[in-house]
Amino acid sequence: MKELELKYGCNPNQKPSKIYMSDGSDLPITVLCGRPGYINFLDAFNGWQLVSELRKATGLPAATSFKHVSPAGAAVGLPLSGTLAKIYWVDDLGELSPLASAYARARGADRMSSFGDFIALSDVCDVDTARLIKREVSDGVIAPGYEPEALELLKQKKKGNYNVIQIDPDYVPAALEHKEVFGITFEQGRNELNIDKDFFSNVVTENKELTDAAKMDLAISMITLKYTQSNSVCYVKDGQAIGIGAGQQSRIHCTRLAGQKADNWWLRQCPKVMDLPFKEGIKRADRDNAIDLYIGDEYMDVLADGAWENIFTEKPEVFTREEKRAWLDKMTDVALGSDAFFPFGDNIERAHKSGVRYIAQPGGSVRDDNVIATCNKYGMVMAFTGIRLFHH
What we know:
34% of the residues lie in helices and 20% in strands. The protein has helices at residues 38-58, 82-87, 98-108, 111-114, 127-134, 148-155, 212-225, 251-267, 271-274, 284-294, 300-303, 321-328, 346-352, 368-377, and strands at residues 3-5, 18-20, 29-33, 62-67, 70-76, 117-121, 138-143, 163-167, 176-181, 184-189, 232-237, 240-246, 334-338, 356-361, 381-384.
C-alpha cells in the first residue's frame, strides 16, 4: 500500500487528507481494523518511536498512552503491586503479562488524560494486553504484531471499527525529515539521539549517588520527553511516568502541571481514597472523575448533598489539605526530566514537594549555580545532559 486516504485532516473541514511515502515506496504499516484518522496516525507514529526506544534502553516491554500528539503516560513492563493494580482498575484480571503491565501503568498514571487514547506497544500484542485494551475507552493501537486471539478481541471493540495498526518493526525512516507549514517546507535531520545509562554521567550536585533504578527512571523520563510537545517535563517513579506536563510556554507552569499529576497519582494510593464507598455499577470513567474531584480543590462537587448520593453508598469525609500533605510527604525517590534547562531554582522547589530526588536536564542556564544550590539544599542528585529535547 503506497498511500492511504483519510477521512479528513486535523478537523473535518480539512480535506483532502492522506498519508503516503514521498519516494513512492510502500507504507510501513497495515491497517488490520478500523479507519484511523490524521491525528490517530500522528499519535501512532510518535508513540511507536517512544516505545521502541524505551524497549531498547531498558530491555523491557513498553507501552504508551497518547492524546493529542503528546503522551499521557509511558511505562515499562514491571510487575504491578496490589495497590497499583487496584487504582488502575485491573485487580480483577489476575497476574498480567509484562506488556499488559506496561499498558496498565501507562494508562493508569493519568486516567483522566488517557481517556480516548491511542496506544503504542513495543512488542506483539498478547491476549492479556488485548483484554485490558478491550474494556477501556480508546481510539486505537499500533504494535509490531498481534496474537490471533488478541486481534479477534480488539476487532470486537467499537462494533468492529476499532483502529488496529500493524507496523513493520524493521522500518527505518530517512535521515532527513520534512514538514510543511503555510506552504513552506521545513527540513531537518531526525533526532536520532541515543539515551542510555551513560547519558547521565555528568552529575553536577554534591550528592552523586545515582542508582541503576534511578538511571532507568531518568531514561524513561527523557525518552518520553523526546516525543512530548515542548516545553515539557516528566516525573517518573518505578518504571513509569507519573506526571507529564506538555506544551506550556513557561517551564515553571509545566513543572507545576506535571507535579500536580504526580501528586494525584500518589494521592490515589492513600487508603482514604482507595476505600471510597462507591455504589455498585459505577463505571470506571465515572469513578476516575469522582476521585479526581475528591482529591482536588473542587471536592464539594462530589461531596455536596444531592451529589454524593449518586456516587457513594455513604458520604465520605473531606480529604483535608493537612491529610493530603502528610500523605504526599511519603512519596520519595521520584525522577524528573526536563527537555530544556531549568532557568530558576523555583522548579526544583516545586519538584521537591513531589518527592523528587533525581533530576536530569540539559543545563546551560545563566542561573545554573542557583539551580544546583537548590538541589544541594535537598540532597538531590542532578545530571546535566548537555542535550536539548524540544519536540514540535
